[in-house]
Specification:
The protein is mainly α. The chain has a single domain, classed as Four Helix Bundle (Hemerythrin (Met), subunit A) (Up-down Bundle). Helix 5 runs antiparallel to helix 6, helix 5 runs parallel beside helix 7 and helix 6 packs antiparallel against helix 7. The longest helix has 42 residues.
Length: 208
């Protein structure tokens, strides 16, 4: 499994001629890295002098952020695995026989199903990456000031996860025949990217 590889091993696999893992996996990994960095900032904050001086509401936000970024860190790694699985399933659908009308119809149906799954996994990555900004902002605003740059990198990685995942959504969306579905997903993509950029810039200004 990708998540069990050493960093060097993963990079070597990524750079090979194998089509998976690819950009979708990297987008999910970026989300995990963003979550991990925010989690680090929270870990460097809890129990420290400034933390003890915060009121209970801010402490609760920090504690919740630590728990949620830990959960998201793991979720993104699972999505990284699912992205590869979805790609391989789609490739298998293309290998289905097409010697008669029934086979052609079934093959076409499975291919469309494969494209939908190959869309929904990276879309989930983008949606979850957008959520991480709430916790990254908390880390940037009330986290250990010596780790403020780490919160900034977390914001950059979260937006990289969003934009990378959306690229993978769109390349698969181009092959979908359901025009209503395509239009609905494209609107979601635009909304996520715009909101992500806004949140990232807000956090970067806060850190600056």
């Amino acid at each position: 499994m990708l998540k069990d590889m050493a960093v060097k091993e993963f990079v070597e696999e990524l750079s090979s001629k194998s089509p998976a893992p690819g950009g979708g996996s990297v987008a999910a990994l970026s989300g995990s890295l963003a979550s991990a960095l925010a989690s680090m900032v929270f870990s460097l904050t809890t129990g420290k002098k400034d933390y003890k001086e915060y009121d209970d509401q801010i402490k609760d936000r920090i504690d919740t952020g630590l728990a949620e970024t830990g959960r998201l860190k793991a979720e993104f790694l699972e999505l990284m695995e699912k992205d590869v699985e979805a790609f391989l399933e789609l490739m298998e659908a293309f290998k289905m026989p097409k010697t008669n009308e029934a086979e052609i119809k079934e093959r076409g149906r499975k291919i469309q199903e494969g494209y939908v799954k190959a869309i929904e996994i990276p879309l989930k990555v983008a949606q979850e990456a957008l959520k991480t900004f709430d916790y990254i902002e908390t880390a940037a605003r009330w986290g250990n000031k010596n780790a403020s740059s780490d919160a900034g990198v977390a914001a950059i990685m979260a937006q990289a996860a969003i934009e990378g995942a959306i690229l993978n959504v769109r390349i698969n969306l181009a092959s979908i025949k359901d025009h209503e579905y395509k239009a609905r997903i494209e609107i979601q993509c635009q909304d996520i990217v715009i909101h992500g950029l806004k949140r990232k810039e807000e956090i970067m200004e806060l850190i600056a």
